[in-house]
Amino acid sequence: MNVKVDTDGTVAHQDDAGDVLLSVRNLRKYFPIKDGVLQNVVGHVKAVDGVSFDIRRGETVGLVGESGCGKSTLSGCVSGLTDPTGGSVHFNTRGRGSAHGPLDEGDRIDRMDRATFAKYRRNVQMVFQDNFASLNPRQLVVDIVGRPLRVHGIASGTALQEKVVELLEQVGLGRQHLYRYPHQFSGGQRQRISIARALALDPELIVLDEPTSALDVSVQAQILNLLNDLQAERHLAYLFITHDLSVVRHMADRTITMYLGKVVEEGPTQDLFETPEHPYTKVLLAAKPDLDDDPDVPIQTLAGSIPDPARPPSGCRFHTRCPVATSTCGWEIDDIVRELETREDLFDKLVGVDRKSDLEATLTFSDSAAAHAVWEAIRSDSVPETMRDAIETLDVRDGALMVRFAKPSAIELREVGTGHRAACILAGE
Amino acid sequence: MSVTDPNAAPMRETAFSVRTRRWRELSATILSNPTTVIGLVIIVALLAMAVFAPWLASPNTPDPYQMPRDWGAVRMPPGTPGHVLGTTNQGGDVFYGVVWGSRTSLQLSIVVVSVTVCIGIAIGSIAGLVGGWVDEALMRIVDVFLSIPELIFALAVAAILGPSFSNIILSLCIVFWVKYARIMRAQIILVRQADYVKAATVIGDSKFNIFRRDILPNAVTPIAVQATLDMGNIVLVGATLSFIGLSESGIAEWGVLVSEGQAGIASGRWWASTFPGLMIFLWALAFNLVGDGLRDALDPRTEGR
């Protein structure tokens, strides 16, 4: 599926692979980091940083990634809970069975008029991870599930009650649960109540934010089956956010992998699981415990922790932890600093970093021996070889170390198969 | 329908019956605590005294809230015929003061607590919901208020307004809302991040409805507990202000009576101060007991689980 965003923001479809319901274009959400008495903004956490994807009618899109990669922020933007910093979310409010037309400026949820936005609201619902926190503890089930109907003036009185019973029956509950409080149910039942509430307005898209993560495995399966049945009955689209790859494989038609606020790979679920192209997806898949695994072989895991999203690595954001990184993956001054942080004796002597750019800087040390030791370390095997290869010039003079990295390759999502795209220079090779 | 099935709902179950049952359960929890019951009994007794004041001690004319003066029987000890609890230096009947003082104290507590709770909820909600510079400005005002001890602040305000009982009420209202504002703000900030608030937004409910149905009911519990405790504390502070002479003299009010009677304590005339003092003590104690019980019963860790 090729979708291009023109300069004026119009989304043009070159390929009518399906009936696009939701389009996310170059979406960014930055959270300011405030510091000091005056609460000056000293930086931004780039939770979501330029994400684009589409969801078609009746389709399940799985969104996977480590915690902290921006999945939940993205779900907030899609469901209109969070205002994005930049980019846009478009939603087709023309209703089921409407002729498929391209989503344009008029479909941007932040520019919709009141009536259109109300349609969007009705058509995008959400189910949350924490089944206890997502239900008001002081409301009865009949009020919780009936509330959307009341708010949108769809039903009231006895009709409302009957509609609620109908909804409860669809999720496997019944009339006897109408006058109970949320705390009188089990976790799985509470999640069913949440689903009933989400169904009340007969939406076209439900954002499922880790809907089964807090449940027992046996209950998880029941909820997943329920979601599958409801999708078949009502032609629902799901945005399924999770870190559980087995769940994604079971549920999703297409899968998107996110790392540090960016999409690193997307494609049909089967392709993505069978021929993952991005090293991060590969590592995620390898880290998934499987019943067939040899219990004596340790599970392959990812080295290091997720970098600070306030200063994400340049180039490919995964290059700092990538097992197959090359010299053109985006090595930069920050990587030297990160390496130094692991060497306390040398890091303590680092006095200043004078950056000319992300790729060029002069590091000043309190004594020339330290500078020399760092110079030696960078030239030796104690740093990743690919990082060493990326250094164009390395000079040491009187306690100052001058480093310049070669310009990295541009890294963008590119086609590696039908509808399968990955953001890695090695992809498709 | 089988009675033995615990999951089966009674056929005539309605929202009303479920809600009243919830209240019944809550009251049962509260009443299972003996100290709370003691507190409730004292409160009921004092309220009964306030209600039946005209029958317990026939009202003074023209103003029943002024102490009657029996100049023929000054400084009489308790047990004197016609003056069960004795009389004051000015011939005021101590029993009359105790009985009618319950009305003034009740008035003080109810007016001050309801006014301050309303102001506190309003200011705290605005600060917590609007945030930004509005929140900053309001909370700095709260900080200024909190930096001055309540009693001294109330004293200063009452002194500026001039000595009268209604000015004491006014000064307490001016001073005591800050605590509620602060509690409310913290609660609002906590509750507004709850997923059920997000869920209500996604449903499309209005901000006002979300505040009314989701945020407010889940935020006010600590306020209710604090207000109950303050019902007692306010009377203490009010009595203190009266005691140091910021109320009109001659009024049937416990603090004033303690104040006017204290001169006689050194000469052995203990009764003029002791009986009204005992009432203040009982009133404050009772509300503290009930407040503690309410806090335990409403504790989110135990409530409804």
Descriptive terms for the model:
heterodimer, A: alpha+beta, Rossmann fold, Gyrase A, domain 2, eight-stranded mixed sheet, four-stranded antiparallel sheet, B: 305 residues, mainly alpha, MetI-like fold, 12 helices, 70% helix, cell membrane (chain B), transmembrane (chain B), transport (chain B), BP-dependent_transpt_permease (chain B), membrane (chain B)
Tell me about this structure.
- The complex is a heterodimer of chains A (429) and B (305).
- Chain A has 13 helices and 17 strands.
- With 429 residues, chain A is an alpha+beta fold.
- In chain A, the strands form 4 sheets. Chain A has an 8-stranded mixed sheet with strand order 7-8-9-5-10-11-17-16, sandwiched between helices. Chain A has a 4-stranded antiparallel sheet with strand order 12-13-15-14. Chain A has a 3-stranded antiparallel sheet with strand order 4-3-6.
- The longest helix of chain B has 37 residues, at 94-130.
- In chain B, 70% of the residues lie in helices and 0% in strands.
- The interface between A and B is medium-sized, with 36 and 29 residues.
Give me the secondary-structure topology.
The complex is a heterodimer of chains A (429) and B (305).
Chain A: E1 3-5, E2 11-13, E3 20-35, E4 40-56, E5 60-64, H1 71-78, E6 86-91, H2 114-123, E7 124-127, H3 141-151, H4 157-170, H5 187-199, E8 205-209, H6 217-234, E9 237-242, H7 245-251, E10 254-259, E11 262-268, H8 269-274, H9 279-286, H10 333-341, H11 344-347, E12 350-355, E13 360-365, H12 368-379, H13 385-390, E14 391-397, E15 400-405, E16 414-417, E17 420-422
Parallel strand pairs in A: 5-9, 5-10, 7-8, 8-9
Antiparallel strand pairs in A: 1-2, 3-4, 3-6, 10-11, 11-17, 12-13, 13-15, 14-15, 16-17
Helix pairs in contact in A: 3-4, 3-5, 4-5
Chain B: H1 15-31, H2 34-51, H3 53-56, H4 94-130, H5 132-147, H6 150-161, H7 165-191, H8 195-203, H9 207-219, H10 221-246, H11 254-261, H12 271-298
Helix pairs in contact in B: 2-4, 2-12, 4-5, 4-7, 4-10, 4-12, 5-7, 6-7, 6-10, 7-9, 7-10, 8-9, 10-11, 10-12, 11-12
